[in-house]
Write a structure and sequence with these properties.
The chain is α+β, with helices and mostly antiparallel strands. It is built from four helices and four strands. Homohexamer.
Length: about 150
């Protein structure tokens, strides 16, 4: 697969990263933009486990500083927006007998030319959602972007 030219569209980059990984977006390209990123996977019937897995990955990979509330808060809102997309606006999974198997990407950086705009964070989720019976799920995707 040909390398994707990373530009300042943080959401598009998060989507491509979760779908194609480093096959199309290199860590070096993100480093040149002064962006931080990580990817991971989570599967659960509980939305709080999805949130916790993404938050843990962000902290372990230095995307956010654990002791800085505004960073955790911005990440939380980006996660909830992404989960809302995955669940079609109803941030419920197990309580309505659904389960998810998701890959995620997190990107932090300034998507603007002016450094004064500060950092933003994007969370993208891609995978499956459906009844907790193998073979009864379908694809889903969600994206959340928030300023820090």
């Amino acid at each position: 697969m040909a390398a994707f030219r990373v530009d300042n569209r943080i959401g598009r980059t998060a989507i491509l990263l979760v779908l194609n990984g480093e096959e199309c977006i290199s860590k070096e390209q993100l480093r040149q933009l002064k962006w931080k990123s990580c990817t991971g996977k989570v599967g659960s019937m509980e939305s709080q486990k999805v949130v916790a897995a993404i938050e843990t990955a962000a902290k372990k990979n230095g995307i956010i500083q654990p002791g800085v509330y505004r960073e955790t808060h911005a990440l939380y809102h980006a996660i909830i927006d992404a989960v809302s997309g995955v669940t079609r606006g109803q941030v419920q999974i197990g309580s309505v007998l659904r389960t998810v198997g998701l890959s995620f990407s997190i990107i932090r950086g300034n998507p603007y030319e002016s450094e004064q705009e500060g950092d933003w964070i994007a969370v993208c989720l891609y995978g499956t959602i459906g009844a907790p019976v193998k073979g009864l799920e379908h694809e889903t995707i969600g994206l959340g972007i928030n300023h820090i």
